Task: structure prediction
Amino acid sequence: MSEPKPKHAKKLLLLHQIQQQRQALGVQSRRWQLVTAPWDRRWMRLLSFRRYLIAGTSLLALYNVCHPSRLMRWAKRGIGILGAVKMVRKALETR
Result:
């Protein structure tokens, strides 16, 4: 009859640990929700503009079909700007 008592005590200890972990998880999940709330609002705002972005990119694609040289010109400019930014970053990192 002495064996059930240690098992029962061990079971109670494990149940207590599980309860503490659940409480800690609840606190951490609330904290996580508070920290990520601004990002969630921004994401939802971005998703609210989804249909307008789809329509805008469709119109831009149609425009680029008629004027492909302008697309190439802006693509080259964008690549040039990215290269310049990368060069400036490297120059600032060495200092």
Notes: Helices lie at 4-48, 50-66, 68-94. Residues 19 and 25 are 10 Å apart (CA to CA).
